[in-house]
């Protein structure tokens, strides 16, 4: 048991207070990236809904990914931006628990949807004749619901483990949001076991989904290399390029955050920025700029608007 036990009503987020001279610059930078992230994800949601040719399982998964990513950024970035402009950077204990639960749940959902997108590409390339039967829009919808259920099952479990006991002073979280490692260290009970359990759950979920994606791409590559024509190989690769790029960016930055050894140094606040701000910004950018169907749908929408304006 730790000393200084008391009933805490709020936590203080240290955030970027260690960098007072660049807080205005960080606010402008993060606010700009956040607006671009929202614009990109809302554009994907709008295009995949408006264009009938994009109402296929592949783009239904992309729509689900963009929606989960929009919710994911909403749980953290608005609060972070507000804290950059004020000296009172507090959050209530229940609010901290909700933020952690939604952050972990939406992050887990994001990983599972990326895995399902890999599975979708595996069926489309390795079993093209059976693909329309195996991956219908109804099946896609059920898989997306399962992704949300799986992500929040993990997050509710982890949040319950962390917030199941009381917290001790000092009530200072050395982060810009309620990161599970930073919060669990404030527990009045011996936090080492709880931290080990929640870390292992997160790492297992992260590595498990990543390994499943790797396995699907092993089968995809083995099938693509058997395609006789260079044009056929290029077409198969083009359907996977954007997804594979996002997977590398997402899991790469996530690994830096969750696989960083204790005591290895570095500011956890800065280390988390790529995973919470940069990755959500890059994801819609990659899916829109590297996808011919998305660009064609955008051109058609612009042509339709110019027609009605004339």
Automatic annotation (TrEMBL):
- Please report the name of this protein according to its UniProt entry: G-protein coupled receptors family 1 profile domain-containing protein
Could you name the Gene Ontology cellular component terms for this entry? plasma membrane
Q: Which organism encodes this protein?
A: Panthera leo (Lion)
Its keywords, alphabetically, are: Cell membrane, G-protein coupled receptor, Membrane, Olfaction, Receptor, Sensory transduction, Transducer, Transmembrane, Transmembrane helix
PANTHER family, A to Z: OLFACTORY RECEPTOR (PTHR26453)
Membrane topology category = Multi-pass membrane protein
For this UniProt entry, what is the primary localization, expressed as one broad class?
membrane
Question: Which Gene Ontology MF annotations are present?
Answer: G protein-coupled receptor activity; olfactory receptor activity
